[in-house]
């Protein structure tokens, strides 16, 4: 048992400095495959998967992953400790490297399920869930949460939440540096309207130096990442990683001390075409379902609009992915350059 605990502590100690956030309808296994091509070391997260979907639904559909995706975390949505434990056990059996509990999603649908951000009001229940999952698996169990609920901006609220959950054995907290407004704002508005308060996350790290604290929310460039890494242990990037995925190619060298990224846009696209062909053969997946995740790959480059329009053109769906790639890379006019 001591060896298992020591191994777990080492995994927590080695927690990646950068990660890509769990994003509903976006970070499926196809998106994660692309992101792993661009960064070997960033931690990737699944979309949130509810315990009900795993315990009463198609487990393979929700948990299937590519071997290339590691390190990879499964984010769970739920509040019943026994269900969380069973879902976490499934996650470990399917090969995930971390189980993360969602205590940050503010959507009304999630609230009706009594999980997500509203769980911050019940830190003892979250602690029970964390303990149940830790008893069920040997991989790290982490929590992603907000800094507050509704208009209450008191620091004591989030400090006490973290303290209570940490007492149950959670050592890693990913903190979205905005409050979650449970009424009056949509999930999209909740990502923009509540003000960012990075200082609260830095204060959590000062108050809990023994914990691993990662920050999330509104981070869009490497300068901000570098600044935050002087204050906390990790940075989680959300929408910018999806819309501008080429940014990930700078992460391994700048933040993990690895060799510079060596592949071109065309080579990454070729890898994705090969993946599309593999997915079609093994699972019957249409390339169109995969291509949507790479539409930002040429963000800011000449000819990007033409390239993006080709890959998103439903009239080309009957063509093989390799043919679509050829059309996308045919210069639209003499000014385009790939």
UniProtKB/TrEMBL annotation:
Enzyme superclass (EC): oxidoreductase
Q: Which GO terms describe its molecular function?
A: flavin adenine dinucleotide binding; FMN binding; tRNA binding; tRNA-dihydrouridine20 synthase activity
Keywords linked to the UniProt accession: Flavoprotein, FMN, NADP, Nucleotide-binding, Oxidoreductase, RNA-binding, tRNA processing, tRNA-binding
**Primary gene name:** dusA
Its Enzyme Commission number(s) read 1.3.1.91
Q: What is this protein called?
A: tRNA-dihydrouridine(20/20a) synthase
Enumerate the active-site residues: 105 (proton donor)
| PROSITE patterns in the cross-refs | UPF0034 (PS01136)
Classification from the root reads:
Bacteria, Pseudomonadati, Pseudomonadota, Betaproteobacteria, Burkholderiales
Q: Which organism encodes this protein?
A: Comamonas denitrificans
Q: Which domain of life is it from?
A: Bacteria
């Amino acid at each position: 048992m001591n060896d298992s605990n020591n191994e777990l502590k080492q995994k927590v100690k080695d927690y990646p400095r950068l990660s890509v956030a769990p994003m509903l309808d976006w970070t499926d296994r196809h998106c994660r495959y692309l992101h792993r091509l661009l960064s070997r070391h960033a931690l990737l997260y699944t979309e949130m998967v509810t315990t009900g979907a795993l315990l009463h639904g198609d487990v393979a559909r929700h948990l299937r992953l590519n071997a290339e995706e590691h390190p990879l975390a499964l984010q769970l949505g739920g509040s019943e400790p026994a269900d969380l434990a069973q879902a976490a056990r499934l996650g470990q059996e399917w090969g995930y490297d971390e189980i993360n509990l969602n205590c940050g999603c503010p959507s009304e649908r999630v609230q009706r399920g009594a999980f997500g951000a509203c769980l911050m009001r019940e830190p003892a229940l979250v602690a029970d869930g964390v303990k149940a999952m830790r008893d069920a698996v040997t991989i790290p169990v982490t929590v992603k949460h907000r800094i507050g609920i509704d208009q209450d901006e008191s620091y004591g609220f989030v400090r006490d939440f973290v303290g209570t959950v940490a007492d149950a054995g959670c050592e890693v907290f990913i903190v979205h540096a905005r409050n979650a407004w449970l009424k009056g704002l949509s999930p999209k508005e909740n990502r923009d309207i509540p003000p960012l308060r990075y200082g609260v996350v830095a204060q959590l790290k000062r108050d809990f130096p023994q914990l691993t604290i990662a920050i999330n929310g509104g981070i869009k460039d490497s300068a901000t990442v570098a600044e935050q890494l002087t204050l906390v242990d990790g940075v989680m990037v959300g929408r910018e990683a999806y819309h501008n995925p080429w940014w990930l190619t700078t992460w391994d060298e700048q933040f993990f001390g690895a060799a510079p990224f060596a592949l071109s846009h065309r080579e990454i696209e070729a890898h994705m075409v090969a993946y599309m062909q593999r997915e079609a053969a093994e699972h019957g997946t249409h390339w169109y379902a995969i291509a949507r995740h790479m539409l930002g790959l040429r963000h800011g480059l000449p000819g990007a609009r033409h390239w993006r329009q080709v890959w998103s053109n439903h009239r080309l769906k009957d063509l093989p992915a390799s043919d679509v790639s050829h059309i996308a890379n045919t210069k639209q006019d003499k000014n385009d350059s790939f």
